[in-house]
Known about the structure:
Elements: E1 4-9, H1 13-23, E2 30-36, H2 40-43, E3 50-52, H3 55-59, E4 66-69, H4 74-85, E5 89-92, H5 100-108, E6 117-119, H6 127-137, E7 144-151, H7 158-161, H8 183-193, E8 198-205, E9 214-222, E10 228-234, E11 242-248, E12 251-256, E13 259-265, H9 269-275, E14 285-290, H10 299-313, H11 324-340, E15 344-345, H12 350-361, H13 379-382
Parallel strand pairs: 1-2, 1-4, 2-3, 4-5, 5-6, 7-10
Antiparallel strand pairs: 7-11, 8-9, 8-15, 9-10, 11-12, 12-13, 13-14
Bound molecules: nicotinamide-adenine-dinucleotide.
Residues 9-15, 36-39, 42, 55, 70-73, 75, 93-94, 120, 122, 164, 180, 381-382 line the site of nicotinamide-adenine-dinucleotide.
Amino acid sequence: MDKVRLGIxxxxxxxxxxxxxxxxxxxxxxxxxxxxxxxxxxxxxxxxLKQFSDxxxxxxxxxxxxxxxxxxxxxxxxxxxxxxxxGLHVLCEKPISVHVADCKRLIAAHTNPAQIFAAMFxxxxxxxxxxxxxxxxxxxxxxxxxxxxxxxxxxxxxxxYSSGSWRATWKGEGGxxxxxxxxxxxxxxxxxxxxxxxxxxxxxxxxxxxxxVEDEVTAYLEYANGATGVFITTTGEAPGxxxxxxxxxxxxxxxxxxxxxxTRNETLASxxxxxxxxxxxxxxxxNIEIPTQPAQMQQHMTITQNxxxxxxxxxxxxxxxxEGIKSVxxxxxxxxxxxxxxxxxxxxxxxxxxxxxxxxxxxxxxxKVEQKNVNRDxxxxxxx
Length: 384
Ligand SMILES: NC(=O)c1ccc[n+]([C@@H]2O[C@H](COP(=O)([O-])OP(=O)(O)OC[C@H]3O[C@@H](n4cnc5c(N)ncnc54)[C@H](O)[C@@H]3O)[C@@H](O)[C@H]2O)c1
């Protein structure tokens, strides 16, 4: 194969965003040949592509080697399973599924290593995130002792929540900010720091919007080495903050406004504490702003190119879909902890969580009335 024939399943906001850059020929070796959507109106924007009104007919058509799934999250699981079972390569939007039990079902369908199965964790391509990963993996920070991430710049309006009948409903989406906006940061949390062993969280339901799911979260995490974490997010705060602070034995790193500032201890804090005769001061430090590549808007294209290269040349994946279960487990643990009013030990009781979610789904307002006249320019979502 020298060209991968792709079909996009779900050509709403994100599906069209992917279609636009692929159609311009930006992805070497990838040709967009088909679009699939259950809403016929959405297909009218793609007269140049073969059109399908249900995913099974696309998958069985023989027209595509690979699919990109950009539907609401619950459908990622059953569409992904059908596509993998049919032998297709799959690139799945985040989150790979709504809950851990569904993630396991989806991942279990990936039995053939020759089939490429990737997830759209585009924020792994942000230069400051790549640099942080290198610094942590190279031990530049020493042992990590504390992580705080305030990510409150995911502001969303009521118009956004009414722009899709599935949005912010238990039955249509399975959660709120943790399942829609924060899968990116939750993925980065596990990518950079690994998984915690315990989670205690407080999630406010519809605190800032007329929605039935969480739009405000404060979570406390504990890691196996004794490190602690705090994760705070909301879609109801403006202007909001995006500030990650990491404390390590070798110093402190702050990532904010796309800059990494490293206050580096000349001596490890633990060693200084044991050996210094000083009572009130820490070790001498250097202040360093870590140089990185400029921020770029090609985060998604890089994942799509990498997916194509993995199919054509065996290039290792930036974001294997199997890793997507971890961010879902973090999101589920936070919701579970808040609903049960207790600390959750990981791995989560995924069947218990699924049961709880089913109970919430039974109370859901889904489907909501969808508002058509809203500004759906997706690039404003990740263009900050
Ligand atoms: N990676 C990113 O930066 C990013 C950004 C936004 C959204 N997303 C993800 O993309 C996905 C879609 O989000 P969106 O904002 O584009 O939603 P959307 O509502 O704008 O689009 C979803 C589309 O899927 C179609 N659809 C629903 N069920 C289907 C099915 N069974 N088969 C075929 N089509 C179906 C709908 O008709 C709609 O056109 C979500 O999972 C979301 O988390 C990712």
